[in-house]
What does this fold into?
Amino acid sequence: MLTKRIIPCLDIKNGRTVKGVNFVDLRDAGNPVELAKQYARLGADELVFLDISATLEGRKTMHDMVLKVAEHVNIPFTVGGGISSIEDVDDLLHCGADKVSINSSAIKRPELINELSNKFGSQCVVVAIDAKLIDGEWIVHLAGGTIPTDLRLFEWAKEVEQRGAGEILFTSMNNDGTKAGFANDALAQLSQTVNTPIIASGGAGTIQHFIDTFKVGKADAALAASVFHFGEIEISDLKKELKDNRIEVRL
It folds into this structure.
């Protein structure tokens, strides 16, 4: 059985880690390099680094920050934000990233998923999907959750899988930052819709929420930010509880 993964997420804006609720009201959460070092030491399975304002500001991901983080971690490291070409990915991999996460650029030009998968391998390509439940339908959003699209979560997930995505990072905008639990119904349906590994994101507040997203939501990995950044959940405690609940994790 594959082990379930715990993934702290570093949302970066102006060189600092930030965290908000429902994608707004951002507050400072610390130095990304120091946080990355700490998480690698404390037993995180992977890290995700998202330059959340890169797309909105029309610029590339901050390479210097990626270099600094990569120097201090020995676990898989995914980078996203402002990535729109093979050249962008090449640069980030040379800076030390192991995978890239694309979102808005994939929506605008879906062929990018094929291009990156063909060039670097599907294991390198994570497609992030930010979706909001509106009138009973999960509507996909782009540009950091600021712009709704005509895409629907499950149809888009099937398409990105067919195009070569190695993983899907699904963030429920309704749950993001609320600490009320992950969107497990949507996650369970997503896991039935695609065979690609699913990373659950948005809503972690307690250890039980992680247990639920693995057992009920059928997620392959769980990503969280504020509960780790502000010391509300220790990764070692979380993994012990998961193990006690017969969920396979790397200790």
About this structure: The first strand starts at residue 5 and ends at 13. The radius of gyration is 16 Å.
